[in-house]
UniProtKB/TrEMBL annotation, chain A:
Gene Ontology annotations of biological process type: DNA replication; DNA synthesis involved in DNA repair; double-strand break repair; SOS response
Keyword Transmembrane attributed: no
Family: Belongs to the RecF family.
Function summary: The RecF protein is involved in DNA metabolism; it is required for DNA replication and normal SOS inducibility. RecF binds preferentially to single-stranded, linear DNA. It also seems to bind ATP.
Lineage: Bacteria, Bacillati, Bacillota, Bacilli, Bacillales
NCBIfam families membership: recf
Molecular function, one GO term: ATP binding
Name of this chain's protein: DNA replication and repair protein RecF
InterPro entries: DNA-binding_RecF, DNA-binding_RecF_CS, P-loop_NTPase, RecF/RecN/SMC_N, RecF_2
One Pfam family, short name: SMC_N
Cellular component GO terms held in the UniProt record: cytoplasm
Automatic annotation (TrEMBL), chain B:
Keyword annotations: DNA damage, DNA recombination, DNA repair, Metal-binding, Zinc, Zinc-finger
Organism: Amphibacillus marinus
Pfam families assigned: RecR_C (PF21175), RecR_HhH (PF21176), RecR_ZnF (PF02132), Toprim_4 (PF13662)
Superkingdom, taxonomy of origin: Bacteria
Protein name, as recorded: Recombination protein RecR
Family assignment from sequence similarity: Belongs to the RecR family.
Coiled-coil residues: none
Residue ranges of domain Toprim in the record: 80-175
BP GO annotations: DNA recombination; DNA repair
Gene3D superfamilies, per database record: 3.30.60.80, 3.40.1360.10, 6.10.250.240, RecR Domain 1 (1.10.8.420)
Entry-linked InterPro entries: DNA_Rcmb_RecR, Rcmb_RecR, Rcmb_RecR_Znf, TOPRIM_dom, TOPRIM_RecR
GO molecular function: DNA binding; zinc ion binding
Tagged with keyword Isomerase: no
Zinc finger feature spans (C4-type): 57-72
Length: 374, 198
């Protein structure tokens, strides 16, 4: 799939903007603080309905304006879909085919995106939260119901933590209520874990050969799921549920003492091993970067395999962070099949033949001039 | 400041209603100015009497102008079934259906520790007392199908189950007259879960 065009209104530093994109490589060039990342972010928001830079939707609206709007047309194999995101003081609206979608899970997935930003290079050594977000976003794109279960889980978790705090401070004594919330929590937790397991299985299949390729067969990558409970990935939902039930009932006192939920997908993590050594603790920076790159490239292939079409790739200021070898491996992989947006301060940083045929966009203080090469 | 005080007061009052913003409030206020005086008086009286004369029924918690409420007084109703709902509006919705001939119990909310609402803050203790005294055979839990409504239903069922009263939960699934293809995945999967043999 690819994005044919985009229109922005009152979005961050763009007052009005309309662009038509190339179906392969689009390079967005500009000095810092001119609006490169804002444009990348707008594309991201069009796909995911929220930003990766802020949790406050209000920040997306241009200064002194009452609303922000992003419109875009996504071309798929057999048809095209108009997408629209609107933000105002009243909240946000997501429109698919000009129809407002009440549930965001009905909207997300219409435009599949893979984002690769400098922060992603820290995926391996960064916080567990980053890795959970990575896995949740990817599953959500492929299986929108996952987002629903994740949302319900977060809601119940909040309720349960609140109750545990009250039990801890002895303001409440109702253990029946706790067991009700535990049962609700487990219901969604076991679905989330089961879906994460099957996603990981796919991710491994794609990431391992890619990693071998980048490392020229010197390294082999394995990925493990690190969880607070004692489960095997082969377990089905019922079995996972059962294990959660026993874990929670055995640890009820401990949870009340601590006043918080100690088990569940919100505490889990991904572990990466290169040649059987944990990359997070023992890997070199190079190995960590290669791992992050392999995961991102695996994501692209995985979405292609699951959804049937390649996603759109966003490379936000990340190419200059990669060495020549990794850079060309990345660009070789996507060449000719994935629509890619590259933001950079200068084109000369990118030494690859794909750039010769790219569409160039020069950003200066919220205005963009378009220029075709080759 | 642009309006004389009486009308700006009226506009302010309308803004306090849900779903009414400043513009609608102005429109409604000016409409009132053009209404016949009798109609305005009736309107004002209706507002006051709705507030003053309505109380909650001591038995079921439904809004009523007489205690116990009409439904609780009705001898022709089936005492053996109680339908538990969150809101008085839910009772009205059920009554419109004209299919249910049992009694009701209105909780006035759902359990939500986050908002400081525990089982004792909604009408649960009164329900338990009712179950002790009355000859109830079935309890239908018709709380909303969201996290809080679900938790409330599960909580009540835990408390009541030991007494041997039959407890049922209303079904979730597809709206009637709708098309399968337009149902969202979550509703569809709930409908599949709750399928029954024909």
């Amino acid at each position: 799939m690819y994005i044919k065009n985009i229109k922005l209104q009152h979005y961050r530093n763009y007052h009005e903007l309309a662009l038509t994109f190339d179906d392969r490589i689009n390079v967005i060039i500009g000095e810092n603080a001119q609006g490169k990342t804002n444009l990348m972010e707008a594309i991201y928001v069009l796909g995911f309905s929220k930003s990766y830079r802020t949790s406050k939707d209000k920040e997306l609206i241009q200064w002194e304006q009452s609303y922000a709007k992003i419109e875009g047309t996504v071309l798929k194999k057999h048809y095209q879909v108009p997408l629209e995101m609107q933000f105002s003081a009243k909240g946000k609206k997501a429109k698919l085919n000009h129809l407002e979608q009440r549930r965001l899970s009905d909207y997300i997935g219409a435009l599949n995106l893979v984002m690769f930003a400098p922060e992603d290079l820290n995926l391996v050594k960064g916080s567990p939260q980053m890795r959970r977000r990575f896995i949740d976003m990817e599953i959500g794109q492929i299986k929108p119901v996952y987002i629903y279960h994740l949302g319900q889980y977060q809601k119940i978790l909040k309720q349960r933590n609140h109750l545990l705090k009250e039990l801890q401070r002895k303001k409440q004594h109702d253990l029946t209520l706790l067991s009700v919330l535990t049962e609700q929590l487990i219901e969604h937790a076991s679905i989330i874990i089961e879906k994460r397991f099957s996603f990981l299985e796919l991710l491994r299949q794609w990431a391992a050969p890619i990693h071998q390729g980048i490392s020229q067969h010197k390294e082999s990558l394995t990925i493990n799921y690190d969880t607070t409970i004692d489960v095997l990935e082969s377990y089905n939902k019922e079995k996972i549920k059962h294990i959660y039930e026993t874990t929670f009932s055995q640890n009820q006192r401990k949870e009340i003492e601590r006043g918080t939920t100690l088990f569940g997908p919100h505490r889990d993590d991904l572990l990466f091993y290169v040649n059987n050594r944990n990359v997070q603790t023992f890997g070199s920076q190079g190995q960590q970067r290669t791992t992050a790159l392999s995961l991102k490239l695996a994501e692209i292939e995985l979405i292609k395999a699951e959804v049937g079409e390649y996603p759109v790739l966003l490379l936000d200021d990340v190419l200059s962070e990669l060495d020549q070898h990794r850079q060309s491996h990345l660009l070789n992989t996507i060449q000719g099949k994935v629509q890619t947006f590259i933001s950079t301060t200068s084109v000369s940083d990118i030494k690859h033949e794909t750039i010769e045929q790219a569409e160039l966009f020069y950003v200066e203080n919220g205005t963009i001039t378009q220029q075709r090469r080759g | 400041m642009y309006y004389p005080e009486p009308i700006s007061k009226l506009i302010d009052s309308f803004t306090k209603l849900p779903g009414i913003g400043p513009k609608t409030a102005v429109r409604l206020a000016f409409f009132v100015l053009n209404m016949k005086e009798d109609d305005v008086l009736d309107f004002a009286k209706a507002l006051v009497s709705a507030k003053r004369e309505l109380t909650h029924c001591n038995v079921c918690g439904h809004i009523t102008d007489q205690d116990p409420c009409v439904i609780c007084q009705d001898q022709s109703r089936d005492d053996s079934v109680i339908c538990v709902v969150q809101d008085p509006k839910d009772v009205i919705a059920m009554e419109k259906m004209r299919e249910f001939n049992g009694r009701y119990h209105v909780l006035h909310g759902a359990i939500s520790p986050m908002d400081g609402i525990g089982p004792d803050d909604i009408n649960v203790p009164a329900l338990l007392n009712r179950l002790k005294d009355e000859q109830v055979e079935e309890l239908i839990l018709a709380t909303n199908p969201n996290v809080e409504g679900e938790a409330t239903a599960m909580y009540i069922s835990r408390l009541v189950k030991p007494s041997g009263i039959k407890i049922t939960r209303i079904a979730h699934g597809l709206p009637m007259g709708g098309d399968l293809e337009y149902a969202d995945e979550v509703t569809l999967s709930k409908a599949l879960e709750g399928r029954r043999e024909l």
